[in-house]
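Exam revision sheet. Question 4 asks you to relate a sequence to its structure. Input first:
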Amino acid sequence: MRDEGGKGGGVAGGIVDCQSHLFLAPVIELMRRRRTDPMVYERDGVTWLRMGDWLRKIPPEYMSVDAKLRAMDAHGIGTTLLSNNDPGPEWFGDDGPAVSRLVHDSIAQVAAAHPGRFRGLCTLPLQDERASAAELDRCVKRLGFVGVLLYTNLADAWCDEPRFHWLYARAEELGVPVLLHPARPLTTGQVKGYELTSTLGNMFENTIALARIIASGLLDRHPRLKLVCPHLGGTLPYISGRMDHQLRVLKRGPQNLQRKPSEYLRSIYMDVVSPLPEAMRFAVDFSGPGRLLYASDHPWVQPGEILGPLRSLRLGAAEEAAILSGNARRLFGL
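Answer key, structure tokens:
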């Protein structure tokens, strides 16, 4: 019997967690001093992050490196790819480049204090192409970061818009993966009732952003781009047959794509943050174990909540090891 929550799991070097976040103390302090969104404030002993009418609590453990290390150790996670929790630098206007540097310097300090346990993912001030390009090079060449975390929307602009195309070209040139991640959803107004923003809004963000990237032709123009979508691709894998039909049979959408949408989807990587075994099984069947990555989405999700369902699939030892570690080590050059 396997340990469903458990340590080690027989993975050499430990599990690799490809999506894990931290509210960085210097960034929180910066937002405390702001008088416009995004800003942080205290109410009744609780720390809150405000972006318009979107409010989120920040418990102390969400800012704690020690709490993250305890969760990693309890579940056999050797290495975590670490990113700052949103909001991203694009929400800070002209201050975005400085915020981005503060984020990355803070992550680099965490990594240096715990050798081998953390590698950084950079979030760029994409409202400023020149500053973003310089910061991407600094992160990869000087700080040892291994990828880009790209928000699905950038201050309400979809990430496939032409002004951001340079990033895909540069990431392809550098050989660093680009990980999509939902931001403050553009559908917030439609899903905030009953507190469904994370349940539905984030998944729709993944779905829409990934479908737009495919339809835009970016994956044809950048065939060596390493693209990762979280949360099993949102809902897109389940409706990709409809997207194929709309494009190929009904001729709705761009007609210059070289492949069917579902074929592009099978060529990217997805992380398994969706704690339902049946959904994970579908992803294994749809994409194959060589295109799936373990991630926890900690601190919002505890690592065992993803490990348990994944291990309940009873995959072969080689397939499970690939998802837990091998694919990520190869993809990110760990």
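Marking note for examiners. The longest strand covers residues 15-22.
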